[in-house]
What we know:
Oligomer: homodimer
Shape of chain A: globular
InterPro entries (chains A, B): GTPase_ArgK (IPR005129), P-loop_NTPase (IPR027417)
Structural class of chain A: alpha/beta
Protein name (chains A, B): LAO/AO transport system ATPase
CATH superfamily of the largest domain in chain A: P-loop containing nucleotide triphosphate hydrolases
CATH architecture of the largest domain in chain A: 3-Layer(aba) Sandwich
Number of domains of chain A: 2
Helix content of chain A: 40-55%
Largest sheet of chain A: 7 strands, parallel
Strand order of the largest sheet of chain A: 3-2-4-1-5-7-9
Radius of gyration of chain A: 21 Å
Strand content of chain A: 5-15%
Pfam families (chains A, B): MeaB (PF03308)
GO molecular function, one term (chains A, B): GTPase activity
Amino acid sequence: MNAPSKKPLDLPSLAGEVRAGNRAALARAITLIESRRADHQASARALVQELLPQTGRAIRVGITGSPGVGKSTTIDELGMYLIAQGNKVAVLAVDPSSARTGGSILGDKTRMARLSAEPDAFIRPSPSSGTLGGVAAKTREAMLLCEAAGFDVVLVETVGIGQSETAVCDMTDFFLALMLPGAGDELQGIKKGLVELADMIAINKADGDNIARANLAAGEYRAALHILTPRSPHWQPPVVTYSAITGTGIAELWQSVLDHRTATTAPGEFDARRREQQVKWMWTMLEDRWKARLKSDPAIRAKVKSTEAAVAEGRVTPAIGADQIAELLA
Amino acid sequence: MNAPSKKPLDLPSLAGEVRAGNRAALARAITLIESRRADHQASARALVQELLPQTGRAIRVGITGSPGVGKSTTIDELGMYLIAQGNKVAVLAVDPSSARTGGSILGDKTRMARLSAEPDAFIRPSPSSGTLGGVAAKTREAMLLCEAAGFDVVLVETVGIGQSETAVCDMTDFFLALMLPGAGDELQGIKKGLVELADMIAINKADGDNIARANLAAGEYRAALHILTPRSPHWQPPVVTYSAITGTGIAELWQSVLDHRTATTAPGEFDARRREQQVKWMWTMLEDRWKARLKSDPAIRAKVKSTEAAVAEGRVTPAIGADQIAELLA
């Protein structure tokens, strides 16, 4: 990792290098975004604003899947396919647990052996800054920098834990859920929250002896999704099968991503999703700051905890609890 | 509707009458909660706090369904069944559109002809106060007052629109989604958000010629739900059929509500859900107040709108937009 330079930061020059597609400069710019130093944060804000006109041109794809589903091999294979098609591919991640575990996803570049050796690929592990809100905010801005640097596909990987999937869905144009064919008759359950988010379900390991099983699983998932009203009137989430090992189905998988963009661009939905995402990012950042204020002072934090406990135990009504906390902020 | 009395409010006496199960006093107390007058709001807060020790004893059931599914006849039939079993039944509603439409759901008591004539039933239309947050907050407090008045079942009806289902799910122990058998082979789609919330799907109009169709629909919904991982490890949401007209299946439907309570009480999930709901209510109220501050001053409101537009159009980064709005509040 590139530590921010000790020299005074030359923002216009850094912005210029990012725009020119200099990967070392891009890595340095992302490190600046991830820094907690107040002066770095101010510079990072200015840098992203400076580069904003060059952002927005990539297609942004969120990818989720449980451990073992083959996310890294899928991204490796998909990334190589996209580069062969003439794209520049950035791979980012949102993993709020990485602060605890020391970087569980994308920490190890050997997980994407071929892609990490490609000059047209840029792989960056999840920022390891504690809260999901913080991690997601930094990944969003890293994504913008990658776009300014000329990457035209951004893949954002997440682990299938809690709210991290929602966070990644909220920063991407297309949200892809990877699944495995079940062992025997038993299907892997689709987490309910995921059904709401997924723009496509893709079943990996459709190779060798697994092909029939993968097709069977696809049919059942398809039947289940069919009963659900799609989120978009312009897109019924498909269920596809592929193999990250043999590459079978990868081209068709990507074609679905492009089909989704075509289908949602004409009615204005594609742009509307981005506009809404941007406004939602802003409000989320505001709320996070507001909550951070409540946590910064130990005395206030203690009072919030005791109020929460009184409300949870039914000793104080939520309305009066809200009064008490509002007074702390006044 | 009972307007708040012109006389100075005698809170201890009103609380006593509510505790004694006086329906007129209960209606007056709810009107107090719904009032926007600052002195009424302060009194309402004190009243709910005063009655808080007598709350929490009812079973709270949220009921959703699209128009035409037979929500009113279902609640009428279910309510009569519950009263025959010795219960006192309160029926409330969350309908944020009622301010616009003049009260679309539960505005008309004739919709529940038998139940509205029952001394052991209390029916209250949705508060008509504009925002969903405001409507939901008032209904939550009305629910607490009904419990203090001795009602041991609270049914909270909602229309299947946007976030109102989430709001009702967040104030109830059990969330019931009513559906219709499809016409012919075609199933009614389950809205994705609903799948995440529903503790049971119940298919109405399983009578006469419709029985086979209802059973077929139940089988398909069951297969679809089976593929989804349930929200609770202790409860797999069942799919049942019933007829609100003939009453067939109503007892079994209610038995599932009781089974859910039994299954989730022992592992502590039932109480945990309520505790979490209470704390979440508090934070929601705080956030609503905080946002109300941004809307109260026309100059601030205009600045927020222009910042939102700049962020949506990609002229300003979300981080800088958040800075600009935070400055307005400082």
